Amino acid sequence: KLYHLLQALIFIGLVPLSTAFAADDLNPTAPKLLLIDNGVVRVGIDRSMGASITWLSWKEQPGNVVNIHDPGRLIQQSYYAGKSRDRTADGQSIDWSPWTWNPIQGGGVSSWARVIRFEKVDDATLLGETIPKLWDMPDEEASAVMKQWTGFEPGTERTIVVRNRIECNRDVDDAWGKASLRPQEVPACYFTRKFDHFRSYLGDGKWRTEETSIGPPWRKATPPLNAMACFSDQGQGIAIYSPTANSIWNYGPHVDAPSNDPSAGPCVHVAPISRVRLGPQSTYEYRYWMTVGSEQQITTSLDQLMKRHAQEKAILENRTRTAK
Prior knowledge:
six-stranded antiparallel β-sheet; 324 residues; ten-stranded antiparallel β-sheet; single chain; disordered N terminus
């Protein structure tokens, strides 16, 4: 479906041919989807979609649960920096104007990001390196590099650990300006629409049901232990544990139309938020975990993760480079 969508967009001129197939320049014969599978959970990254996570399934849920409808969905890195700018005269989307410097791993509003490294390091680790796009523009690469390591948490069978890193390479005197405190999605997650029951984990096996409404705008919540899960009517779910999050999370369903289709417009969204000052020359790195299964299985996994990683810290470094 995605292939045919891109063909249609190329035909009507919304996506340039060179943009739509930019990822193929890496190696046209290489697979577009790399997967790792431990016998219980399967996770994959896609080189035609910015090396973002585009596949997640498990024993009780064999179908993919990641929404891949457009470059803004997926499970991916998303950051914000600098002041908001009106660039509609340069082609900025009127739906996203004015807008900050917002590099997206998946791509811009109508183009996919370029992948420069894409490999299966071993049977339990995937590595992608991406030149992101600025979300508000149809096809503008950000002055940044994103790296992502995806693997399985040691000693567990239902938990994935992801290390994300962005290196900002903006000119120090560019129009977005100096560092300002902005919300960062750590990470941005989009799942199929059926996972629309949201709960925050409180510890000791206790959960809090979060109210829902159709978004955007998304609902807001503050999970006390930085763990939130979304469940289906069948009782299967995905929990995000992002211990470095330091602000209110975004969450909620999009469109009142149940769907199991990863390519469909309807979806659900979860995004832990950290407020961070990203400057023109900042490097920012953090880890998060995803664990899947029933509520009891997720509870067990979260308890293990919190014992190990509750003191996890993000890393923010600011380099200095002379302006051009």
